[in-house]
């Protein structure tokens, strides 16, 4: 789990054990940016939803293949905006890259500076230099 800002974490594929640490960090929303059946052995959305519920989190599936679409960015922004003060969100995909891109595109919809977003992403280990923001 890598921090992009005070309220947003990203990660590669998560497992049940990862949700304990996320819950301790006050994560209340779990967003799955993987496409269904993207990889053999990947947990199903139903399984992920059950794990999130067990950890006291809301679960959203916003599938992203490649660069996030405008719709995916809007839905990601809505998920981020659903947080109450002090709550956090954890977004995941296979490596965390698509989730980071979706976060950056959502923040741009809010008016955030593209260079600042790229710097935040790079600090977390994700290079968004080729993402059109």
Q: Could you explain the architecture of this structure?
A:
The chain has 133 residues and is an alpha/beta fold. The protein has five helices and five strands; from the N terminus they run ββαβαβαβαα. The protein has a five-stranded mixed β-sheet, with helices on both faces. The protein starts with a strand and ends in a 10-residue tail after the last helix.
Write down the overall mean pLDDT.
96
| Beta-strand percentage range | 15-25%
Order of adjacent strands in the largest pleated sheet: 1-2-5-3-4
Distance from N terminus to C terminus (CA atoms, Å) equals 24 Å
The count of helical stretches stands at: 5
* CATH topology tier name: Protein-Tyrosine Phosphatase, Chain A
Low-confidence stretches: none
Main beta-sheet annotation: 5 strands, mixed
Could you say how many structural domains there are in total? Answer: 1
Helix percentage: 40-55%
The CATH class turns out to be Alpha Beta
Name the overall outline.
Answer: globular
- CATH superfamily membership: Protein tyrosine phosphatase superfamily
């Amino acid at each position: 789990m890598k921090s992009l800002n005070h309220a947003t974490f990203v990660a590669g594929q998560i497992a049940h054990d990862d949700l304990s640490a996320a819950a301790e960090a006050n994560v209340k929303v779990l967003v799955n940016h993987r496409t269904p059946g993207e990889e053999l052995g990947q947990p199903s959305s139903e399984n992920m939803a059950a794990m999130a519920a067990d950890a006291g989190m809301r679960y959203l599936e916003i599938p992203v293949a490649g660069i996030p679409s405008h719709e995916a960015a809007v839905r990601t922004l809505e998920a981020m905006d659903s947080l109450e003060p002090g709550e956090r969100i954890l977004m995941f995909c296979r490596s965390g890259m698509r989730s980071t891109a979706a976060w950056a595109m959502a923040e741009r919809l809010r008016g955030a500076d593209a260079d600042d977003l790229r710097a935040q992403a790079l600090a977390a280990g994700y290079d968004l230099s080729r993402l059109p923001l």
